[in-house]
Amino acid sequence: MRLLVLTPILRREGWTPPPPKCVAPDVEVSYEWLDRGAETVESHYDEYVGILDMIEKGLKAQEEGFDAIVINCFLNPALPGMRELLDIPVIGAGEAALHIASMLGDNFSILDPDPPHRTYSHRVAAAVGLMHKLRSVRYLNLGVKGLSQDFESILNRMIEEALKAIEEDGAHVIVLGCTGMRPYAERLSEKLRDYGVPIVEPLSAAIAMAESIVRLGLSHSRASYPKPADKKRIS
Amino acid sequence: MRLLVLTPILRREGWTPPPPKCVAPDVEVSYEWLDRGAETVESHYDEYVGILDMIEKGLKAQEEGFDAIVINCFLNPALPGMRELLDIPVIGAGEAALHIASMLGDNFSILDPDPPHRTYSHRVAAAVGLMHKLRSVRYLNLGVKGLSQDFESILNRMIEEALKAIEEDGAHVIVLGCTGMRPYAERLSEKLRDYGVPIVEPLSAAIAMAESIVRLGLSHSRASYPKPADKKRIS
Amino acid sequence: MRLLVLTPILRREGWTPPPPKCVAPDVEVSYEWLDRGAETVESHYDEYVGILDMIEKGLKAQEEGFDAIVINCFLNPALPGMRELLDIPVIGAGEAALHIASMLGDNFSILDPDPPHRTYSHRVAAAVGLMHKLRSVRYLNLGVKGLSQDFESILNRMIEEALKAIEEDGAHVIVLGCTGMRPYAERLSEKLRDYGVPIVEPLSAAIAMAESIVRLGLSHSRASYPKPADKKRIS
Amino acid sequence: MRLLVLTPILRREGWTPPPPKCVAPDVEVSYEWLDRGAETVESHYDEYVGILDMIEKGLKAQEEGFDAIVINCFLNPALPGMRELLDIPVIGAGEAALHIASMLGDNFSILDPDPPHRTYSHRVAAAVGLMHKLRSVRYLNLGVKGLSQDFESILNRMIEEALKAIEEDGAHVIVLGCTGMRPYAERLSEKLRDYGVPIVEPLSAAIAMAESIVRLGLSHSRASYPKPADKKRIS
Amino acid sequence: MRLLVLTPILRREGWTPPPPKCVAPDVEVSYEWLDRGAETVESHYDEYVGILDMIEKGLKAQEEGFDAIVINCFLNPALPGMRELLDIPVIGAGEAALHIASMLGDNFSILDPDPPHRTYSHRVAAAVGLMHKLRSVRYLNLGVKGLSQDFESILNRMIEEALKAIEEDGAHVIVLGCTGMRPYAERLSEKLRDYGVPIVEPLSAAIAMAESIVRLGLSHSRASYPKPADKKRIS
Amino acid sequence: MRLLVLTPILRREGWTPPPPKCVAPDVEVSYEWLDRGAETVESHYDEYVGILDMIEKGLKAQEEGFDAIVINCFLNPALPGMRELLDIPVIGAGEAALHIASMLGDNFSILDPDPPHRTYSHRVAAAVGLMHKLRSVRYLNLGVKGLSQDFESILNRMIEEALKAIEEDGAHVIVLGCTGMRPYAERLSEKLRDYGVPIVEPLSAAIAMAESIVRLGLSHSRASYPKPADKKRIS
Predict the structure, then answer these.
(1) If you measure CA to CA, which chain A residue comes closest to F207?
(2) Can you list the positions of beta strands (E) in chain A?
(3) Does D118 contact C81 at a Cβ distance shorter than 8 Å?
């Protein structure tokens, strides 16, 4: 099985992502980035700038025989449109993380790297229909870029806010609200092991869900995502 | 006051829209279309194709001193991104229609020109947070293009489905689920006058709401629609 | 267009309301009060005392050719009954404010002059079907009468609670929970301009919505508000 | 224990209600009607006409030592205001019926005597916070007055609609949507015994609930129903 | 009328419960415990251990002519299965308490003896369909066993948390989240009388509701609780 | 990875289940049944009879080194209690199927083998928090046992009801409401391929989800499922 992780931001040259630990031996994971898009996705506008390249990269992946595509962003950019055009499953990181979280406990809280995107965690929960399981959003006040600096102090911010989510808000599961938080997931999980509160990292969750859906021989519903009719389009 | 009605489809040359009847004497309404986009908007993909031109046309309108922008489509394409970038109010036709409908009665049903976009009426109601007031969706099985042909028989289809919505589904208000249905609104309203069930036409509703919000000196919340930060973007 | 602002409290002699700023040049706004009713509306009982005079004043306004009636109270007293008896639109201040707020942001908080009416803000949000957008209610602990004294200190209380709503509760829009707060709306908006959080003043919102609905040629649904049958009634 | 059943319509001379079967031996049930009000309650306006006499009759009952008041109407007229003014429990027939129904099964359907009041059953379910348990409303098309004529044919209408609610809509409990349906409750229950679907008659439900709440030494919350302050009121 | 209070824990020899105050003179209340079960019910596992003995004791009570059974535990253990097998009403303490609370005010908060069962109060509210009325859960950090020691200090903990529920969370009604809190109910009610916030004790609430439902001649719906078919079962 | 499929019914000797197609090459699936339990699970009572053997079989599997347990029943029997006692993931077939369905489309309908268990499909959707995505339940009127007879005619019943769900109810995804329907899943999927509506078979869905959750290194939250304390228990 071949999965493509499509990151909805501009390609960063010279950087290779760590191999995922959450796949079966027969799964091969490839990575792709955008040629047209934004440096990071922190707004709807950032989504829009890369939205047509997302579609293009998705169509190319399908032609090349990939079995499924994972959108490597908690905000699930371009998700409905990609599903309209593609037959293979397209799984968003935020959508997958919240569904996995929903199966592990009665509620979840999201750790959000924000600001600036202080509104998006609620919107993602609403868009995937799981708002009623959202206990709280805890803000790290870092921004996506801030996530790539100063490992230990960022980890400590995460631990601090995760503990507040658990102890003050009553969170039963913690969801990381940005796939850029992936490098912290393992250390954070270790630190919180005694609380018995699972930490869900969205990219891994989406890769695992994509694998499941491929093995089940399923894909998204054409009733929800009808194939766009041919018509005049100028882009 | 100057309002711009921005239609999220390719400019159709040689066509002038009828002047709206629902504005105050001091309101001037202009119309704009896309240079890059799709012929009609019946899918998320159609939205994506024109999404950056929507932003551009919006920014230009703001510079030219327009007081508000109305998105002339029930599906509210590009709405969140335009609000991020613009300071003047941006009002979507679907969003405005459902809020007006919500103030006129206990529930509403939507007349949907579909197929093909059999899923969108529910999605618009969910996106604007008024799903609990949606009594039913009634499908005309025409498609957006079908709406421009054969006036009397289309009107009869609308009357037939509107009556089913009222009598079988218990609809208290009827919302037209496409701004392309505008030419039928008046005749449909006349036909149904005896039922006392209001017919809400979404473009008119959005123009009226835009006017109201401008007069109130209001615009969208920056907490919901934060201004995108400067960053590298390639489109 | 002629709008009547009907204030559901006893007429206060010698007081003239300031002309509204939110209307088109062709709109004339008149004011009316009750001859039978309570001094202020802070309970259902206060509503009941004036409820039949509300109906009477409404019927008289319709006979005199008014195009719509605005109920000048956040609690929307007598709203369903007036709609049953009148054909012209009747718009409640609380209902209009929450719908406008719902279009400006993802959620709203209400500034409530309470006590004593500590329960009503939630009830208004529930009654108009927008409870899911209510982020919090912040109480000024003044009472309606307290609102008319000591301008600067009341303004400071409002600013303080509005900031708590924004910073602690995550409010995206602030709704003033009493039309008696109108004199503070402008100053409060100025103070909070840097937050980008709109302040919705309910009387202005209702006047603007009434104007919109009249221009759209709409009124409330007879399916939701059937005309009462003739029968024996002793009052 | 002394309970007062207060019927929110004009007193009908020469008519004595049948003694209720659902009370304990130590409970005495009295009946009272309005001197100012409407002949039947089929609209908000009908409620308004008698609303102050409801308050007056309630206050008098409390002074006379009644332990609780039951409002004999499915629409729960004057309920919040009576609770504001009275210390003894005030129980509405619609509210009690839906809560009892909610404890007997997963959902309920309402048999509504309508027209004309085709909107009220939904509104009552929403007002008491049990809309999510409402499976359907089935209309008898009789009107309240129609209920007092032609016993067998009305009973057959009820059986027919109750069976449709059970078989077509999947109703698990049937609630009679008008206390005027009381004379049919027993026969209807017998007819439907084989289905195992309970029939809840609202007046009996409210009398039983009132008795329970009195025995528990409870009454409504002052936080939900604060006592109205003294002020100038002219009625 | 004969009611059986069935406590879903192992029989404690030599202990006689105080006679309930909330029943009519013609009601006789008996008590029964389990021979197979757990010492206390603080987990689903504790429920499972006694679940078949609950059924057995229920069937025996029905044979002996009891009119209804009250499950003496806020968690409503074995409730759906007992209803499947029995024809007489079976009322759970948690379910009854939340429905009574729902009729007394706009919302309620639960006082939970937890830990360890920090998740159950939310789950009970969700299971009975009243989550939207749950304002907050306040934890006493005692455990069920802790409730039987040190009367005054436990009472003070309850008062402290009840006041926080009222003043910080805005609770309108307080529900005791364990029938083991019964000995504190009266003193707690006295202490909070000035707030006008009712205290609902779940065992009393369930006894009163059971009495009501018996007097109404009602029982649970067979559509919700179908009688199990005969089949091979080994236990 | 070793997964145990635990079927909550009495062992049927001489029957070997077909090997699942939906697992990775490194996954080994074993099957276990109950020694104490019911022949089929069609009621809460059937669940209760086997509930302690479920726990025992689960504990034994954990000791034997299984990585996760799948409960082979759409009704998710014993799920919360097993999670309390076990550290390895426990996944219910109904819960997994509805979460997978939720990711594939805007809504789903359930094909229910019922009667007799006409109420359970709604209850499962409510229990897992996805009621708002349930479009309809379509009943086959077979019962669980009926599923094992007469292949072609049962398949035709399924096709017929699935098409009604799609065409009349507007279902976007079809979920099989019993793991006993597994033999029909492939043929049904083929038949409905042209509609683009996915068919979710619950046992396969649960096996795939269990595999995912094991690979992610996750398990259920101890905040939602606290480990039961030691105490006296007699079973």
Answers:
(1) A212
(2) 2-10, 28-34, 37-38, 68-71, 90-92, 108-112, 134-139, 174-176, 199-200, 233-234
(3) no
Judging contacts by C-beta atoms under 8 Å, the chain B residues touching residue A92 are: none
Residue E80 to residues C16, E72, F36, F48, F217, Cα–Cα distance (Å) = 64, 15, 21, 10, 35
Of D172, D212, D223, the CB nearest to E211: D212
- Please indicate whether residue D194 or residue B149 has the higher confidence score (pLDDT): D194
CB F176 within 8 A of CB F96: no
For chain C, say whether D132 makes contact (Cβ under 8 Å). no
Q: Is the pLDDT of residue D137 over 90?
A: yes
**pLDDT tens figures, C175-213:** 999 998 999 999 999 999 999 999 999 999 999 999 999
How confident is residue A113, by pLDDT bands cut at 50, 70 and 90?
A: confident
Beta bridge pairs of residue F137: F110
Nearest of F217, F221, F227, F214 to residue F67 by alpha carbon: F214
Q: Which of residues 83-122 of A touch E (CB under 8 A)?
A: 106-107
**Using one digit for the tens of pLDDT, what is the confidence trace for A14-39?**
767 777 778 899 999 999 999 999 99
Can you read off the two tokens belonging to residue A146?
């801030």
Q: At residue D145, does pLDDT exceed 90?
A: no
- Whether a cis peptide bond, with omega within 30° of 0, leads into D115 is yes
Touch of B by A (3+ CB pairs closer than 8 Å): yes
> What pLDDT, on a 0 to 100 scale, did the predictor assign at position E116?
55
* Chain D: closest CA distance from residue C129 (Å): 9
* Residue D170 with chain F: CB contacts under 8 Å: 118
Which of F51, F55, F222, F225 has the highest number of chain E CBs within 10 A, making it the mutation to test binding with E?
F51
Can you tell me the ipTM of this complex? 0.96
* Angle at the Cα of D93 from the Cα atoms of D88 and D95, rounded to 5 degrees: 85
Q: Which of B69-78, B167-176, C145-154, F45-54 has the lowest mean pLDDT?
A: C145-154
Chain D contact present for C41, CB below 8 A: no
Q: Which domains does chain C have, with CATH numbers?
A: 2-93+205-215 (3.40.50.1860), 101-202 (3.40.50.12500)
pLDDT for E115: 66
Q: Are E45 and F81 an interchain contact pair (Cβ–Cβ within 8 Å)?
A: yes
Q: How far is it, in rounded angstroms, from Cα E19 to Cα D180?
A: 39
- Give the angle subtended at the CA of E198 by the CAs of E196 and E200, to the nearest 5°: 170
